UniProtKB/TrEMBL annotation:
InterPro entries: DinB/YfiT-like, DUF1572. It comes from Aquimarina celericrescens. This is DinB family protein. SUPFAM superfamilies: DinB/YfiT-like putative metalloenzymes. It comes from the Bacteria.
Length: 172
């Protein structure tokens, strides 16, 4: 992997992480404190639980593994909390976690992007870890958006306001 390819890969990972963060912030702007901890049913998670879960996952995969730090995640506890953490606290935790992950991803070498390591029982390269973090964050961002639309009976949350999504590709 060349330095240029690694740089482009990291830039795209960071862009996608920023996009998911932007969408979660827009969703949170439309939710009340009570909405954050509502569950659609007993077998589902609240938006608050999803944020705690995302922070745990990003910390375990990107911060701990790629940052060569001790893995102290308690995954089960991410789903046990049912209230007591405010919207502001959740957003700050999420934003600081993503910021730290982006710093670590941006700083690792090509060799570290290629090096395999075990995380949560899986064997991934640094690239695989960065992809996992990004797709996992995006997956749960979609769940948060869907749950926000359900709670607020909205068709759109304004993610792409002012952007014409019908523009055709320009092939050169």
């Amino acid at each position: 992997m060349t330095e240029a390819i690694a740089k482009e890969f990291v830039e795209q990972i960071n862009y996608r992480l920023d996009e998911s963060t932007r969408m979660i912030v827009l969703s949170f702007d439309q939710l009340s404190e009570e909405d954050i901890w509502k569950r659609p049913n007993a077998n589902s998670n609240s938006i608050g639980n999803l944020i705690l879960h995302l922070c745990g996952n990003i910390t375990q995969y990107a911060i701990s593994s790629l940052g060569c730090l001790e893995d102290e995640r308690d995954r089960d506890s991410e789903f046990l909390i049912i209230k007591g953490i405010s919207k502001k606290q959740l957003l700050e935790k999420m934003q600081s976690t993503v910021k730290k992950a982006k710093e670590i991803i941006s700083a690792i070498s090509v060799d570290e992007l290629l090096r395999k390591r075990e995380v949560q029982g899986f064997n991934f390269s640094g690239i695989g870890i960065a992809i996992h973090v990004t797709e996992h964050y995006s997956y749960h961002t979609g769940q948060i958006a869907f749950w926000t639309k359900q709670l607020k009976d909205k068709k759109s949350l304004g993610f792409y306001d002012g952007i014409d999504l019908n523009i055709k590709n320009k092939n050169k």
